[in-house]
Amino acid sequence: MLPEIATMPLQSAAPFDAPFAAELFLLARVVFGGVLAFTGINHFLDLEGTAGYAEMKGVPLPKLSVIGSGVLLVFGGLGVAVGALPAIAAGALALFLLVATPMMHDFWAVPEDQQESEMTSFLKNAGLFAAALGFLALASIEWPYALGGSVF
Description:
The longest helix is centred in the C-terminal third of the chain and has 26 residues, at 112-137. The model has no long low-confidence stretch (mean pLDDT 91). It is built from six helices and no strands. With 152 residues, it is mainly α. Helix 4 (62-82) crosses helix 5 (86-104). It has one domain (22-110, 118-137). InterPro entries: DoxX (IPR032808). It is a multi-pass membrane protein. Its main location: membrane. It is found in: Membrane. Keywords: Membrane, Transmembrane, Transmembrane helix.
């Protein structure tokens, strides 16, 4: 017999009541969102190189895909960092990472001398995906130090 699993609504969990919890959450948002926004900006700074890499990986419409993913990374990253429409921002980033990670970092399908680098990138993106899911899970509550806006 399996134990019963009960969930607790986040609103009753008071996630930001602990000392410095709100400030640490802000720091996490700024670092996470800033890294992804910076990555998106790099899509534009090296558009041809990034599009060439995407084409090599078999991405359809590589230049348009790089532009679209760059926009998503910049606006999603900034959205999480400043707490603007967090469900949309975190959800878009999670979806991007879910699709892009196995497509761009397919360590199982590259030559052996590239496997370690691709696996590192894959695992790094998997961690970012988990963080995006964490922010998405918290999107239904009011974020401290945030611009706000909600779809819930």
